[in-house]
Amino acid sequence: MLVIQRIKTSEINSFTCPAEHETVVVMPAVKMVLAQRAADVMLARTEASGLLVMAEDDCRIGFVATANFVYSKTVSQYFCYTAQDAFAGYFWLDTALETMRATGAGLLAFNDGRFFGELAAFGLVSRQWTDTLYGSKALFFPHYQKIYCDTELTDIATRTNKLAYNPHSMLIEIDYGKHRGQSARSEENTIRYVPSRAKDPDGILYVTRALGGFGGMVAPFVPTIGPVEQVLKARRQAGHSVPG
Description:
Number of helices: 8
């Protein structure tokens, strides 16, 4: 079964994980009441063994820094990232692990009720794969703060044929305050724009890195997701059509 270890980012330097686990799950959180409720369901709905680290970000270092720190301080074959707003389906982790073993994938996108395998908002990775991306100290590209880190990871997995999806592996995102994204259809495909601040640093970083192939890990491409202004500019410069 999963066992829980609770940490705070204010005490993060004292965090140790003396044992190796098949799977480590990290849950960065700012509202521990919600995190505990999510963790209780996760434990009750899996028979898989491993460690669930509930990481209270009381210093507000951000989702990416918190997840990366736990990743760097633990040892496991698989590593899962989730959040306080995740609601687990029955055997959510069991089916995910079975899929990873059967496919040899680097990243599995959980069925979160939003992206249906196209984007791993909650994901399970093989460390053997992720260690080749940013090194053994980082799950996500460390210059993101809280968003687009999962988008980059998904893009890399997709473009290197390392992405898996099992609709029965459910971690449904429950967030009643999150707005739905806008969409518009171009002549080529559906462009999914994410409404954001004009100078959203994570979004700008993502678009810039996509245009450079994430540091050479994949072929450079023009993204179809990100801050509207940056995506439209990149597409125009590349000669792609854009909605009028």
